[in-house]
Amino acid sequence: MSDHIVSAYSDELDKLSSDIMRMGGIVETMITDSCRALSANDSVLAKEVIARDPQVDAIESDVEKQIVSLIARRQPMGHDLRMILSALKISNELERIGDLSKNIAKRALRLDDHVSMEMRNAILRMSRPVARQLNEVLDAYASGNAVLAKNVWSSDDDIDQHYNAVFREMITYLIEDPRRITAGAHMLFIAKNLERIGDHCTNVAEFVYYQAVGEYLSVMDRPKLDQV
Amino acid sequence: MDSDHTPQAAGSVLAPAADAPPAAAPRIDCRDIKVFYGATQAIHGVSMSFPDRAVTALIGPSGCGKSTFLRCLNRMNDTIENCRVEGQILMDGQDINDHSIDPVLLRSRVGMVFQKPNPFPKSIYDNIAYGPRIHGIATSREDLDAIVEKSLRRAGLWEEVKDRLQAPGTSLSGGQQQRLCIARAIAVRPEVILMDEPCSALDPVATARIEELIDELRKRYCIVIVTHSMQQAARVSQRTAFFHLGNLVEMGETEQIFTNPREKRTEDYITGRFG
């Protein structure tokens, strides 16, 4: 899209979208690193993930200030208006993803030896499509690609399937050995967190689509395989 | 966990706004309007209609033809020496350019408010009473008094001037003068009110008063407003038409035009990207 006559307005919008991308980049590493920390029992990495969360919160609050200022001073219209509203919503979704990843890292620190390698690897496997979802939706955001956003939006059922499988696997472990219950409960919450992150990616995809096209994706059209 | 899976954003909250403009029959229907100033063509075949009891805003850069087009609707272009209008403008099924139509009568049915308030150099009372008198709408003094009061009330000016109706119209403030001109236009019981940049000479408070008045008048009249302020178009109108280089580029519900225009030229203009 061509530049505004008022170049400072273009600069402000560029800054806003680059902040969203920066925020997205940080939370993407938080997802993968929290799950890597979990699978490798790496407490240093888990603590690093936890330490990244305040950065994400700080960007979110700064993004919000930028948006209030843009609305008050520029009276955005058309694509600019949609871009600004989407940024507000997307930054909120990304902040939630950061929180959930931080929570995974915190739980990773509290797991004990009763958590088998298989259980840890099941989570690591589930984290990959989740991180991929976020990666793709951020690509869609960066390029304003509505088709890509819609693909992300309609492929959330992959993650739901993973979640269903992990859920069943965990229950089996717990039945086998009741000493695993505390750790198992943490692991179930971790799996649930990943599933929620997938949902947040879906929400981001909706806003990317709205920003690009100006229409809303209808929840009725989305495939849904969650059975738990 | 079913409910957990529902994305928070896509449900009923995102349903389209319910206050879509009324689907009233068009009060004015324009077909393939072309306007020429001598050899220069200013409007290139514009077809559009204006619904009753709704405000339609015409926006576009200077020289895009929006004012020229507005002036077609009450034959104000007749007064310009070398101006020629082609096409049909139907009001209640009748072409307003037909030879049988008296332009003076037409202008009482299609009132107009201009950029600069232009009260007659007469008293406030006579500014309003002049039209009804010459059009024979009022015969007795009582009728005339009633029309003056009603028009001033509808224009939201009565309380401010009722004690000084004999003061000259030009003694009022700019915003009051503009409301006086609106009162003058509605005194002759028009069906349509045309407004050409009615607030561009007014301060924000006076502008807000006029906008409030437009919203009130919309319940009775078909209103067409030309404005340079997109925010004003967004605030007061139900439908918006974007003109560029003498063409109607896009027309739609105001909300759609300002959130999701279909045409790139409209998008560029409303977001401030015009070169």
Question: Overview of this structure, please?
Answer:
The complex is a heterodimer of chains A (228) and B (275). Chain A has one domain: Up-down Bundle (Methane Monooxygenase Hydroxylase, Chain G, domain 1), CATH 1.20.58. In chain A, 83% of the residues lie in helices and 0% in strands. Chain A is built from seven helices and no strands. In chain A, helix 1 runs parallel beside helix 3, helix 4 (117-143) runs antiparallel to helix 5 (146-154) and helix 6 (156-176) runs antiparallel to helix 7 (181-213). The longest helix of chain A is centred in the N-terminal third of the chain and has 34 residues, at 7-40. Chain B is α/β, with parallel strands linked by helices. Chain B has a domain at 21-120 and 192-270: P-loop containing nucleotide triphosphate hydrolases (Rossmann fold). In chain B, strand 1 and strand 2 (40-51) form a beta hairpin. In chain B, helix 4 (124-134) crosses helix 5 (141-154), helix 4 (124-134) packs parallel to helix 7 and helix 5 (141-154) packs across helix 7. The radius of gyration of chain B is 21 Å and the shape is globular. The termini of chain B are far apart. At the A-B interface, helix 3 and helix 7 of A face helix 1, helix 9 and helix 11 of B.
Write the layout of secondary structure elements.
The complex is a heterodimer of chains A (228) and B (275).
Chain A: H1 7-40, H2 43-74, H3 78-110, H4 117-143, H5 146-154, H6 156-176, H7 181-213
Chain B: H1 2-5, E1 26-37, E2 40-51, E3 55-59, H2 66-72, E4 83-91, E5 94-95, H3 103-109, E6 110-113, H4 124-134, H5 141-154, H6 158-161, H7 174-187, E7 192-196, H8 204-217, E8 222-226, H9 230-236, E9 239-244, E10 247-253, H10 254-259, H11 264-270
Parallel strand pairs in B: 3-8, 3-9, 6-7, 7-8
Antiparallel strand pairs in B: 1-2, 1-4, 4-5, 9-10
Helix pairs in contact in B: 4-5, 4-7, 5-7, 7-8
CATH topology of chain A: Methane Monooxygenase Hydroxylase, Chain G, domain 1
Task: Please report the number of helical segments of chain A.
Answer: 7
Q: Please count the helical segments of chain B.
A: 11
How much of the residues of chain B is beta strand, in percent? 15-25%
CATH superfamily descriptor of the domain at 21-120 and 192-270 in chain B: P-loop containing nucleotide triphosphate hydrolases
State the CATH superfamily name of chain A: Phosphate transport system protein phou homolog 2, domain 2
Radius of gyration of chain A: 19 Å
Number of strands of chain B: 10
So, CATH architecture of the domain at 21-120 and 192-270 in chain B? Answer: 3-Layer(aba) Sandwich
What's the β-strand tally of chain A?
A: 0
The level 1 CATH classification of the domain at 21-120 and 192-270 in chain B is Alpha Beta
The SSE string of chain A, one letter per element, is HHHHHHH
| First-residue to last-residue Cα separation of chain B | 53 Å
Q: Describe the oligomeric state of these chains in a short phrase.
A: heterodimer
